[in-house]
Write a structure and sequence with these properties.
single chain, 376 residues, Rossmann fold, 2 domains
Length: 376
């Protein structure tokens, strides 16, 4: 099995991490893989250099120059499967397959990571009509795709995986010393891009409530994004400058995360929330919303606490409860570590990906005539 993986993002988020884990995991099992990544992206920087690392930059959905470059790669390498890992990659692969005109064409697989409803326009109908299999990171996403018109037989659930050895090997940072926080202050951490669907404004509102009950608590938000100016304004408006720190993008985010007392994810929508897997692998208790596929990861009352979306009061109450109960946090963290080992290892994710590839062997390739439409 020879799979070519395509991810166009310059940034490093959960999807890029999963793309790299997939590529390396398949190689570890003896399967040939190649990776197409943005030449200036974090994924390319972290991937292993070599002939199977191909830099191509895509500027959007209709970048014919990038698609032409990829079509030449397809004709030269002739992969069995082409696996698109992000939204622009789907467009680039769809265009490249048409330009390459290979017979038979490689199977077209798409990782679906977002719980957004499908767009209804001609280009989306065309590009997603070519997809042979959607690998959904949660059952919630799979149900949404089916409801939006994609045949269930063309979907599989492949939950994200976590590299347990990598997590264990990451050094633990002294977050208090690294970020100049008061010694002994309880730390609530969050690692997520500063974008609307991550719901940071609700986490910051919750922080204002939490510090009334736990005055020395500190919130550390790791990530960058378009909402940073608005979130900084909210922090000032709530007089939380001493209590909420926007730490920006950190390549050592995992090491920082190991120093948190509690992990909080405030998403409004979420495909799965793979950062939760890191927290669980560390043995951290989590407070998270019930958005999207999160309840498939966090078992409420067993590995963490789930609260309604957009509810800062409920988020704050759960955080206060766990900050005041170290024994309960430890109990939830231990159960989380056991669950992630049994259900969400990278080996399990890779095997399910291989199973999906195998199901496509010998089946007719999609022709683009499906009635489903899709989105980014």
């Amino acid at each position: 099995m020879f799979s070519l993986h395509v991810d166009t993002a310059r940034t490093w988020r959960g999807g890029q991490n999963q793309a790299l884990l997939t590529v390396l995991g398949l190689r570890a099992q003896g399967h040939r893989t190649a990776l197409v990544a943005h030449p200036d992206g974090e994924l390319r920087r972290r991937a292993r250099e070599g002939p199977d690392l191909i830099p191509i930059a895509a500027s959007g959905d209709m970048d014919f120059r990038a698609a032409w470059k990829l079509s030449r790669v397809l004709r030269m390498m002739r992969p069995t499967v082409v696996h698109a890992h992000d939204a622009h990659a789907v467009s680039m692969v769809a265009l490249a397959r048409s330009l390459a005109r290979l017979e038979p064409p490689p199977a077209f697989v798409v990782s679906r990571r977002v719980d957004f409803h499908l767009r209804r326009n001609a280009f989306s109908r065309w590009k997603y009509g070519q997809v042979d299999r959607f690998l959904c990171v949660s059952d919630a996403i799979r149900s949404m795709l089916v409801a939006d018109g994609i045949a269930e037989t063309r979907t599989s659930t492949v939950h994200d995986g976590v590299d347990l050895e990598h997590v264990a090997a990451a050094p633990r940072l002294d977050v208090h010393g690294e970020l100049w926080l008061p010694a002994g202050a309880p730390l609530v951490g969050n690692v997520a891009a500063l974008v609307p669907h991550k719901g940071h404004r609700y986490l910051i509102s919750a922080a204002a409530i939490v510090i009334r009950a736990v005055p020395d608590a500190r919130f550390v938000i790791v990530g960058e994004g378009e909402l940073e100016p608005k979130l900084r304004h909210q922090i000032r408006e709530l007089h939380l400058e001493r209590h909420v720190l926007l730490a920006g993008f950190r390549p050592d985010a995992l090491s920082l995360q190991k120093g948190f007392d509690l992990f909080a994810l405030s998403s409004v929508t979420e495909g799965m929330g793979s950062v939760l897997l890191d927290a669980m692998a560390i043995g951290q208790a989590t407070v998270a919303t019930r958005a999207g596929g999160i309840p498939e990861v966090v078992v409420d009352g067993h590995t963490g606490v789930l609260v309604p979306v957009r509810d800062a009061n409920a988020l704050a109450a759960a955080i206060v409860m766990l900050l005041k109960d170290p024994a309960r946090r430890a109990q939830l963290g231990a159960a989380a570590k056991e669950r992630v080992r049994d259900e969400f290892s990278v080996e399990r994710m890779v095997q399910r990906t291989l199973d999906a590839y195998g199901q496509l062997a010998g089946t007719p390739r999609a022709t683009g005539s499906g009635r489903h439409v899709a989105a980014d």
